[in-house]
Amino acid sequence: MFSEQRKIKIMKIKFLMIGLIGLISVNSVFAQKGELSNAKDQYNKYQGLRGQKTFAAMATTALNEAKVSIDKAAANEKTAKLPLTYAVKGGIYAALAYRDTVPAIQTPLFATADEALKNASEGLKSITNTDEKNDAKKIIDDAYQTLYVIKYNVGVKEYQSGKYEAAYHSFDFMRSIKQDDTTSLYLTGLSATNAKMYDEGLVNYKKLLTTNYSKNPSIYSDMSFIYLTKKDTVNAIKIVTEGATRYPNDANLAKREIELNLQTGKATEVISKIEKAIAADPKNKTLYYYAGLAYNASGNMAKAKESYEKALEIDPSYFEATLNLGYVLLNPAINLRNAANKLPTSKQKEYDESMKKAMALFEVAKPVLVKAVELRPTSYEALYNLKNYYLGKNDMVNANATQKRMDALKQ
Asked: Looking at the domain assignment, is residue 185 inside a domain?
């Protein structure tokens, strides 16, 4: 009988111990979930206080406390792999990386945040509660925005110091976060191009063209240069033609299309194309300007002059047409003067006749040259043409004065 009683007592003790062990285990989980909860609360507190100078110290304290708690929650097997743990850890470490810009410190903090956020994003799939899922997603989105800003700041410094490949990787991280973000697409493409990573540059620029990026006309032009660098003339012309069709009022693209076609021996095609457009829209000053560019580039100065003058009949203040007309009028005067100066002294009569004709041509050009400068006083090209007029007329006083205006533009 004594033996039976003893057995019963031993069993009760065992049950008591098992219950105690279970209680300790549950309390441990609650404790770690408490650390996660505290980490989240302190992180949210930091988010609310950051950026306010009055509460800067409180924000720092909250973030430091959040780090201590999340590190404990992340170290415990019961909470380490919870999506919310990863999300909060990513947010906290992203904030820490943002606050410390010293590369040796920022880089590992950034890497920790990035890894945690990847795990958090993957873990979202396992969360069934809508509120919990939205809560975690907001933390993830905010943290990624912080990483975006960090990489932007780093990438700008890298680009400005000529580290184009490093800048490409920084901006490409931004692009990976916001795949349709025009800023990151542009900066990634620009850095890749400067790093001579032409294929990577084209990939990002092509993607940019599918957006409503305000500078897409220049992207078409830049892509044509990349293709030419790759010695791919066919695609260089194709992309710039696509751009000119999409943006028919962009003068730079039209000029680029004309130049490329002329360089590849397609002057007739491009001039014919412009003339057909003029026939359909005879009051379009831009089309006459394009025609002037095409004739100018093909060497037909008479037709170029005529085209620019027609553009100015429609709009007398059209700067680009005025500038180019001035050049067309000035160029033969300069050529005639230079040719006269090469004549031997035995041909004084021919020299005098040539110089007289040259001076007359200079005077024909003068009003147009002056008008171009009046229309745009800060145009280096307009001032350069006017200076050449003064040099042609041996007016060194005005030539030097104009040069000073040109020098001022470079300062």
From this structure: no
Residues 258, 277 contacting (CB under 8 angstroms): no
Q: What is the mean pLDDT of residues 355-362?
A: 93
**Does residue 217 contact residue 193 with C-beta atoms inside 8 Å?**
no
Instruction: Grade residue 120 by pLDDT with cuts at 50, 70 and 90.
Output: very high
Across all residues in the chain, what is the average pLDDT? 90
Give the whole-angstrom CA distance, residue 243 versus residue 299.
Answer: 25
Distance (Å) of CA 104 to CA 78, 108, 171? 32, 7, 20
Q: Which residue has the tokens 């010695």?
A: 231
Candidate ranges 234-238, 296-300, 345-349; pick with highest mean pLDDT? 234-238
Determine whether 192 is exposed, middle or buried from the number of CB atoms within 10 Å of its CB (0-12, 13-18, 19+): buried
156 and 25, same domain (yes or no): yes
Q: How many domains does the chain have?
A: 3
* Residue 145 maps to a domain: yes
> What is the C-alpha R_g of the chain?
36
Mean pLDDT computed over 203-218: 95
Structural domain of 151: 15-161
Domain identity same for 250 and 325: no
Report the SS3 class of residue 319: helix
CATH number of the domain at 397, please.
1.25.40
Instruction: Quote the CA–CA distance of 243 and 216 in Å, as a whole number.
Output: 8
Is 273 within a domain? no
Confidence of residue 256 (pLDDT cuts 50, 70, 90): confident
Task: Look at residue 71 and tell me if it is in a domain.
Answer: yes
Helix (H, G, I), strand (E, B) or coil at 51: coil
Q: Does residue 102 sit in the same domain as residue 228?
A: no
pTM: 0.68
Amino acid found at 279: A
Specify the 3-state DSSP secondary structure of 263: helix
Mean pLDDT of 294-303: 90
pLDDT at 143 over 90: yes
Looking at 237, 265, 293, the residue that finishes a domain is 265
Residues 71 and 147 grouped into a single domain: yes
Residue 8 neighbours by CB under 8 Å, 6+ apart = none
